[in-house]
Every structure is written in C-alpha cells, then in structure tokens.
Design goal:
Length: about 80
C-alpha cells in the first residue's frame, strides 16, 4: 500500500484507506510491527478526517439567514485562506 501524506487527502480518500486498514487488521495475519505501522497510519488518517469534518462544519456555519434569504459568507480559516 503506497503511503500518502494524510494532510493532502480529501475526506473520502482518507476514509476509504482507513476502512482498508481496519479490514486488514481484522482479517490478516499481521506481525506486531505490521500492526503497529497500520495503527499509526490509521491514527493519521483519523486526524485527517476529523480536520476535514471540522473545516466542513465551519463552512456550513458561515450560512447566515438575513431578511429571509440564505447568504453564504466567505470562511476565513486560521491561515487566512478563504
């Protein structure tokens, strides 16, 4: 399995890889070292998913109802990106 930097993965890709790791750990005969490597990668992917969900939640919170209309306001994260 190629190792990808988890911070560059989108939610769906990270989640799919995480599911594959869980399945592998449940079904395969792994050495202790292999299990630890998969566990560490799973933790990285889990954090990536949590970060992506947090960003999505923040963007949703930017929806503001004004005068009966839904207006999307730009989201500025801590890094100054919109």
């Amino acid at each position: 399995m190629p190792v990808k930097k988890s911070s560059t993965l989108d939610f769906e890709t990270a989640m799919k890889e995480l599911e594959q790791i869980v399945e592998s750990m449940e079904n395969d005969q792994l050495t202790l070292d292999e299990s630890l490597q998969k566990f560490e990668r799973g933790v990285e992917l889990s954090r990536t998913c949590q970060e992506n969900l947090k960003k999505a939640e923040q963007k949703v919170e930017q929806l503001v109802k004004k005068h009966g209309k839904l207006i999307i306001e730009p989201f500025n994260d801590d890094q100054g990106n919109a």
